[in-house]
Amino acid sequence: MSPTPAEVSSNYLPVLGLAVAAALCACTPLWLGRLWARYFSPGKPGADKLATYECGLESKGDAWIHFKSGYYLYAIIFLIFDVEAVFLLPFAVIFTGLGAGAFVSLLVFLLLLAAGLLWAWRKGILNWAGDPARASFRGELSALPPLD
Questions:
Q1: Contacts of 138 (CB under 8 A, 6+ apart)
Q2: What is the pLDDT along the chain (148 residues), one digit of tens a residue?
């Protein structure tokens, strides 16, 4: 016996009520902030109000400066191996209960990470203080101004 359309729609009323409540919870703080800004915040822009502010100090120089690409590559490699630790933890917890398929997938995952580490090592990305002649981005290094 299938439910009637009235019964089906009455079953979804709590879901509709929760969706409306969620929308109200999301929109109410935005609406209250807009009201506060309109009635209580001064709307007089001036030199001090429009100035760039960074950690209590005035900005000096241009924000568009060159950074070594090694910083970004180093950060990306850190993230890769940080995420690796997150994925390996569940395997370590239930290692004795793993089947052969899960063990093979773990080995493939570790081999891919080892290949990535070997690639980064050969490219000279892990050589932080390094020998710029070994780095694959030596064209970028020569174009950068010397660091003070």
A1: 132
A2: 677 877 777 888 899 999 999 999 999 999 999 999 888 887 777 777 777 666 666 667 776 777 777 677 778 888 888 888 888 888 888 877 888 888 888 889 889 888 888 888 888 777 766 554 444 544 444 444 555 4
Q: What is the DSSP letter of 13?
A: H
User: What span, in angstroms and rounded, lies between the C-alpha atoms of 123 and 89?
Assistant: 29
Token pair 């090592």 in the structure block, residue: 121
102-110: long-range pairs with CB below 8 Å, 24+: 109/84
- The string of DSSP letters for 66-110 reads ---HHHHHHHHHHHHHHHHHHHHHHHHHTGGG--HHHHHHHHHHH
Cα 109 to Cα 59: distance, rounded to the nearest angstrom: 45
Which tokens in the block code for residue 105? 């997938």
